[in-house]
């Protein structure tokens, strides 16, 4: 397919990142799948970026292996130089890289946990989103279009898991909001997304063991497949109205309702708004009084 839209999905070796990449492939994207794992999985849950790239191909897109440790700014910069050299454009950046050890899933006192948890959730997570956006923005600004999407969650508003987790999620929302202000003159958008319970291998294993679900997480109607957010992002790209969303934080299922998107299993998962309330940040077009569609936020 000629003139495929181009996306970079960070942290695409497994879980949500893998699902997003595959869903974008289904929509015809060329997807640079980033992560540290080439032919051997890093961590207990399996998956490599090479596996993901092959699945993107099978879905109808073009998957490109992009081995990158996002703790290394030089490697991150080289990634986006490569994208620019090979494609000459970048339509979508999905900031999804994040590290969460299994032992950090249950709530626990920060002083009883190793300081490495900050590196995992803030440096691998929030800081890598800033660095990737820093190197992606010049490409998008030059072409005067593009979308940066951060995968976040209501942990920035409520207490969940561990202190660095909430700090990181709050930062993802604020990062998108403030980037949107600075990117606005160049018609480049930035948003943050709150998924429901994501049906990754780890989440499904936790549910099977009797954990995960509950008032502080959601229940079975809130479960989304890992492909759902990718489908939503593909729909935003196809609609061409990302600037009306820019700066906002959104429940993924509410955006799906706006764009007529269903999950891979044909369902529309329920929003967790009744549990967690409205996200803090509205689209900046609302702040300046422009007319926008009702986003439900």
Structural notes for this entry:
This protein is of the alpha/beta class and 297 residues long. It has one domain (6-287): Rossmann fold, CATH 3.40.50.720. The chain is 41% helix and 13% strand. It has a 7-stranded parallel sheet with strand order 3-2-1-4-5-6-9, sandwiched between helices.
Provide key terms for this protein.
single chain; 297 residues; alpha/beta; Rossmann fold; seven-stranded parallel β-sheet; 9 strands; 41% helix; globular; disordered C terminus
Fold blueprint:
Blueprint: E1 6-9, H1 15-26, E2 30-35, H2 49-59, E3 62-67, H3 73-87, E4 92-95, H4 116-143, E5 147-151, H5 163-183, E6 189-194, E7 197-198, H6 201-208, E8 223-224, H7 228-239, E9 249-251, H8 252-259, H9 273-276, H10 284-287
Parallel strand pairs: 1-2, 1-4, 2-3, 4-5, 5-6, 6-9, 7-8
- CATH classification class: Alpha Beta
CATH topology: Rossmann fold
H-E order: EHEHEHEHEHEEHEHEHHH
CATH superfamily: NAD(P)-binding Rossmann-like Domain
- Rg for CA atoms: 18 Å
How is the largest sheet built, in terms of strand order? Answer: 3-2-1-4-5-6-9
- The assigned structural class equals alpha/beta
Shape: globular
Q: Distance between termini? A: 36 Å
Domain module tally: 1
Spans of at least 5 consecutive residues whose pLDDT stays below 50 are 291-297
Question: Total number of β-strand segments?
Answer: 9
What is the residue-mean pLDDT, rounded to a whole number?
88
């Amino acid at each position: 397919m000629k003139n495929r839209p181009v996306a970079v999905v960070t942290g695409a070796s497994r879980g949500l990142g893998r699902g997003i990449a595959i869903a974008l492939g289904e929509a015809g994207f060329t997807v640079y799948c980033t992560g540290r794992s080439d032919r051997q999985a890093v961590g207990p849950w399996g998956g490599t970026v090479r596996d993901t790239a092959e699945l993107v191909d099978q879905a109808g897109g073009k998957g490109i292996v992009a081995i990158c440790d996002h703790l290394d700014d030089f490697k991150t910069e080289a990634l986006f130089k490569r994208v620019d050299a090979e494609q000459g454009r970048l339509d979508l950046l999905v900031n999804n890289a994040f590290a969460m050890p299994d032992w950090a899933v249950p709530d626990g006192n920060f002083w009883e946990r190793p300081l490495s948890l900050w590196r995992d959730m803030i440096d691998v997570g929030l800081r890598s989103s800033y660095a990737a956006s820093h190197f992606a923005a010049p490409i998008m600004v030059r072409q005067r279009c593009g979308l940066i999407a951060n995968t976040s969650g209501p942990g920035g508003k409520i207490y969940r898991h561990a202190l660095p987790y909430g700090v990181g999620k709050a930062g993802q929302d604020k990062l998108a909001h403030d980037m949107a202000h600075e990117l606005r003159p160049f018609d480049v958008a930035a948003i943050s997304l709150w998924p429901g319970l994501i049906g990754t291998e780890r989440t499904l294993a936790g549910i099977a063991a009797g954990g995960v679900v509950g008032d502080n997480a959601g229940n079975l109607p809130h479960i989304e497949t890992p492909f759902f957010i990718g489908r939503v992002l593909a729909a935003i790209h196809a609609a061409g109205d990302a600037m009306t969303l820019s700066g906002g934080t959104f429940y993924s299922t509410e955006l799906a309702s706006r764009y007529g998107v269903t999950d891979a299993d044909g369902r529309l998962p329920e929003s967790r708004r009744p549990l967690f309330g409205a996200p803090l940040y509205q689209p900046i077009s609302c702040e300046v009084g422009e007319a926008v569609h009702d986003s439900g936020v």
